[in-house]
Write a structure and sequence with these properties.
By secondary structure, the protein is an all-beta fold. The chain has no helices and ten strands. It has strands at residues 4-9, 12-18, 28-29, 40-41, 67-73, 75-81, 87-94, 98-101, 105-110, 115-120. Strand 1 and strand 2 form a beta hairpin. The radius of gyration is 16 Å and the shape is globular. The model has no long low-confidence stretch (mean pLDDT 85).
Length: 133
């Protein structure tokens, strides 16, 4: 099993699935610098420190949203669609897996009671008729 799967459509990245078995030994970012959200693992030894700092403002024009889902508990299937709403892939996500959606669309089927931690640009406005497939 691959620990990181990149799902693409016509060379356009749609999603990354990071499996819970990935155990990096050094700081590793999984997304290119130009992505709207940076996702990675930051690894420090005991006694290590992160110096006090501020985050510089960075103005970006967002034309889409991205989201990160972390499966805290449970299991689900995710369907990943291209921007034309055609099904590209179906994958199962399990406890500890991380999914980064960077383009296209998606839908879920819960296989067990499931809890996600979700991070995305907000605010969440719900689905209107144009967003539904």
């Amino acid at each position: 099993m691959e620990f990181i799967e990149k799902i693409t459509w016509r060379d356009v990245p749609l999603a990354y699935i990071i499996r819970s078995k990935l155990n990096p030994t050094q700081t590793t970012f999984l997304t290119p610098l130009e992505f709207k959200q940076q996702v990675g693992f930051v690894v420090y030894p005991a006694g290590g420190e992160i110096q006090r700092h501020v985050h510089r403002p960075l103005e970006r024009h967002l034309v889409g949203t991205s989201e990160v889902l972390i499966v805290r508990r449970g299991r689900c299937e995710i369907d990943i669609y291209d921007n034309g709403r055609e099904l590209v892939a179906t994958r199962e996500l399990r406890q500890g897996d991380i999914m980064l959606m960077v383009d296209g669309g998606h839908g879920f089927r819960m296989l067990e009671d499931t809890v996600f931690l979700e991070v995305k640009q907000g605010p969440y406005t719900g689905l209107d008729e144009k967003e539904r497939f």
